[in-house]
Write a structure and sequence with these properties.
Blueprint lengths: L2 E5 L3 H13 L3 E5 L2 H10 L4 E5 L1 E2 L2 E2 H10 L5 E6 L4 H9 L4 E4 L4 H20 L15 H8 L6 H13 L6 E4 L6 H10 L8 E5 L8 H6 L16 H4 L4 E5 L6 H13 L1 E2 L8 E2 L3 E6 L3 H6 L5 H7 L2 E4 L10 H16 L9 H9 L5 H15 L1 H5 L13 H4 L9 H19 L4 H8 L3 H10 L16
Parallel strand pairs: 1-2, 1-3, 3-6, 6-7, 8-13, 8-14, 9-10, 10-13
Antiparallel strand pairs: 4-5, 11-12
Helix pairs in contact: 6-8, 7-8, 14-16, 16-19, 19-20, 20-21
């Protein structure tokens, strides 16, 4: 059985917590003051410590900080007063595993303590009972696989992976920020896979893609009869992510009215679906992401300051690709392998050193997403010749043979060069099919919508119409 220490100066509440945990099969010790708590901690080790914020001889926060200084292995759960968001955030930043708000929901208490004990024991099995994780080798196989997708040997990416492993240990909200295309969702998924919630759902939500009128229903759910057309109960994102992680992408795009509702749910951990009269307990970890400067958005009045502090307990900055150019070879290899796997092609060889140099000189403002699109388009349309892929299996040329062979000059603008190659291939295919877009798309392995998009982007028009509309779609 797990051993839990309960620290609270109110005898009735202390007894209530003890009975609740005893029914779960745990062993429980109790203390009414900080002095008694330190006496208990000095005599034995616990799996979890539950402490009230305010005690007769000091703050529970000082107990938490002292345990952290001593590098004790216990997971600490802080109990804060109702609506005291500042105390909860302070506790999480000080290293608390989680927090509970008075009046404590006993079901929530059981769940939080179970999670704390599971995390403590998984840490012990990984042979790290007294120290925070120092590297990727101390996480589960699922976490290892997710961390492996954060490709790059650079110090910047090593720091990101290490921070993910450390942040995965607690329930504290995490804010992932960085430019568009840097891989913020990959970081969120690695965080989830490295945590004790890895077996539970990971629900990703793009906050900017949901119409404002549907936000509340999508987030909190709907009950039958709540409005015309609500013919059955439907869960929201919070219910779908129960026990797992809710990833709020582009959190900076949420309107202010929804920000206030989200803040209350994060603080109180209860949601009220549309049309319901009772609130429902939700157990999710919040991970949010944005490419915006939320501090500047707060100053401009477009983002709530209290919500910003609530979300930004732990922050992870994902560096832009221009700040880690040394990661390009590893990134290109990983992306080419993924492209080959997704498209069913045989494994693709590495890029030539010349093309890598060209990519390093390219600004790539869209970061890893732009790099992946460039490689995907080049492989799909130009295959090896377009990418100048250096085949590992190609025989080495005889001495002096390379000097006799002429090499095509490297393009000054890779994106423009790829666009021109794509345009030529599309025009040739359209001409051979009599500008029948359906037939041309089939020849190139595209669908009709994709070829229409490419024709419009590359300004390709049919012989008798604006965009080849004279075909037989």
């Amino acid at each position: 059985p797990a051993l839990v220490l309960v620290v609270d100066d109110e005898p009735d509440l202390r007894t209530l917590y003890e009975l609740t945990l005893l029914r779960e099969g745990h062993r429980v010790e109790a203390a009414g003051t900080l002095a008694e708590a330190w006496q208990q901690l000095g005599s034995q080790r616990f799996d979890a410590v539950i402490t009230d914020m305010r005690l007769p001889d000091g703050l529970g926060l000082s107990l938490l900080q002292g345990m952290k200084t001593q590098q004790r292995p216990e997971r600490c759960v802080m109990i804060t007063a109702y609506g005291s968001a500042e105390n909860a955030v302070e506790a999480l930043k000080a290293g608390a595993f989680d927090y509970l708000t008075k009046p404590v929901d006993l079901k929530q208490l059981r769940g939080v303590v179970a999670s704390a004990i599971a995390d403590r024991r998984s840490a012990a099995k990984a042979d790290r009972p007294d120290l925070p994780p120092a590297g990727d080798a101390q996480v589960s196989a699922a976490g290892q696989a997710a961390l492996a997708r954060l490709v790059g040997p650079s110090a910047a990416m090593a720091a990101v992976r290490q921070r993910v492993v450390k942040a995965a240990r607690s329930m504290a909200p995490v804010l992932v920020h960085g430019e568009s295309g840097t891989g913020k969702e990959l970081v969120a998924r690695a965080l989830h896979a490295s945590s004790h919630r890895a077996e539970r759902p990971f629900v990703a939500v793009n906050c900017g893609a949901i119409p404002e009128t549907l936000l509340e229903a999508e987030f909190f759910g709907v009950r039958k009869g709540a409005y015309t057309g609500a013919t059955q109960d439907r869960d929201g994102f919070f219910q779908a992510a129960a026990g797992g992680t809710l990833f709020l992408d582009e959190i900076g795009d949420l309107p202010l009215a929804m920000q206030a509702k989200l803040l209350r749910v994060i603080q109180e951990r209860h949601v009220r679906p549309l049309g319901a009269t009772q609130e429902e307990l939700v157990d999710v970890r919040i991970v949010s992401a944005t490419h915006k400067d939320l501090a500047a958005e707060v100053q401009a009045g477009r983002f709530r300051q209290d919500l910003y502090y609530r979300l930004n307990v732990i922050d992870i900055l994902v560096p832009a690709l221009r700040e880690r150019r040394q990661d390009l070879p590893a990134l290109c290899d990983a992306l080419l392998q993924r492209i080959a796997a997704d498209s069913g092609h045989p494994p693709l060889p590495s890029l030539s050193p010349e093309l890598l140099q060209q990519l390093e000189a390219h600004p790539l403002p869209g970061n890893v997403r732009e790099l992946e699109n460039l490689l995907h388009r080049a492989v799909a349309l130009g295959e090896a010749d377009m990418l100048h892929i250096a085949s590992q299996a190609a025989p080495a040329p005889e001495a002096g043979a390379g000097e006799a062979q002429s090499q095509s000059p490297l393009p000054d603008n890779l994106a423009a060069w790829l666009d021109q190659c794509e345009r030529e291939i599309l025009l040739r295919t359209l001409q051979e099919t009599g500008f029948n877009r359906t037939a041309a798309a089939a020849r190139l392995g595209l669908n009709l919508r994709q070829i229409r998009y490419r024709m419009a982007r590359l300004q390709i028009t049919g012989p008798n119409s604006e965009a080849g509309a004279d075909d037989t779609d």
